[in-house]
Amino acid sequence: MTGTKRTKADTPLVEMRDMCISFGGVHAVDHVSVDLHAGEVVGLLGHNGAGKSTLIKMLSGAYKADSGEIRINGERVEIHNPRDARRHNIETIYQTLALADNLDAASNLFLGRELVTPFGLVDEDAMEAETRKIMARLNPNFAKFSEPVSALSGGQRQSVAIARAVYFNARILIMDEPTAALGPHETQMVSELITQLKSEGIGIFLISHDIHDVMELCDRASVMKNGKLVGTVDVDDVTDDDLLGMIILGKQPGQASATEG
Ligand SMILES: Nc1ncnc2c1ncn2[C@@H]1O[C@H](COP(=O)(O)OP(=O)(O)OP(=O)(O)O)[C@@H](O)[C@H]1O
Ligand SMILES: [Mg+2]
Predict the structure, then answer these.
(1) Judgement on whether residues 38 and 123 belong to the same structural domain of the protein
(2) Which of 131, 145, 162, 231 is the S-S candidate for 258 at Cβ 3.0 to 4.6 Å?
(3) pLDDT value at position 256?
(4) What is the pLDDT of residues 163-208, one digit of tens each?
(5) What's the gap in Å between 63 CA and the centre of ligand 2?
(6) How confident is the model at residue 130 (pLDDT cuts 50, 70, 90)?
(7) What is the b/e burial string over 168-199, where b = at least 16 CB atoms within 10 angstroms of the residue's CB?
(8) Structure confidence at residue 96 (pLDDT)
(9) Whose CA is closest to atom 18 on ligand 1?
């Protein structure tokens, strides 16, 4: 494909090509390539220490890659810090959600980016109105607008974190284990949020240890082992056991190929 003019439809939203990063002598990420299209969810799977978080931290600007290239909508970009990532509409939701527990949903949504009145005062009413608007779109059942977020369930807290990312124009969302600490009902709430974000054309990298979540929510899955990419598969083409074989044994599923195009 290199060198040919691609149409918008087949240009990925994100391409990470041949990414490498080492810590001391350890190749945490070793020549890994993954991509993501608009409206797509790509799962990142692999054992503890496989390199999943490190890979996406090179996209979120938490780490600078030793080598490799990142393309957004086909354009080569340099991401050296979180500000660079945000400029490219990349938002990250870490498992530890970084919410201010004593503040309500609106104050969290606008934390550090508060709306102000023409007189320079924090505009609580406008922030709450905007929060209600975005929640109506993302999670219509959300009702806890005046409580501090410490009083919210895990799924409701995820909603606030996701609303914050989306309000500030995330086109590329990175979610590191979003359902790890949640019960079934809460997990369902987050699944519905992800489906909604997909329908709005947002691309999502979803790190998960839960094969069922990946099978249900993802279009494709990329499996890593010891810093290397085992392969990328269409979830419709594989079984749970195929994915397990990739994760545990680094083995290719019979019908799927590890190479792209
Ligand atoms: N800042 C760092 N300094 C040194 N080593 C690091 C650093 N960050 C990650 N590593 C190492 O890189 C490797 C990959 O770690 P990473 O956190 O990416 O794994 P992971 O796939 O996200 O695992 P988990 O499922 O446990 O979250 C590990 O060996 C880890 O110890
Ligand atoms: Mg991790």
Answers:
(1) no
(2) 231
(3) 45
(4) 888 888 889 999 988 877 777 777 888 888 899 899 999 999 999 9
(5) 14
(6) very high
(7) eebbbbbbbbbbeebeeebbebbbbbbebbbe
(8) 66
(9) 51
Looking at the structure, do residues 117 and 84 belong to the same domain, yes or no? no
The domain that contains 192 carries what CATH number? 3.40.50.300
53 C-alpha vs ligand 2 centroid, how far in Å?
4
* 83 and 148 housed in the same domain: no
**Residue 105: per-residue pLDDT:** 94
Rg of the chain, C-alpha, whole Å: 19
Distance CA 60, CA 71 (A): 13
In the chain, the number of structural domains is: 2
- Any atom of ligand 1 within 6 Å of the Cβ of 225: no
Residue 25 lies in domain: 1-89+171-261
| Pocket flag, ligand 1, residue 54 (CB < 6 Å) | yes
Q: Verify that 116 and 159 share a domain, yes or no.
A: yes
Closest C-alpha residue for ligand 1 atom 6: 23
151, 169, 187 — which closes off a domain? 169
Most confident of 2-16, 110-124, 189-203, 219-233: 219-233
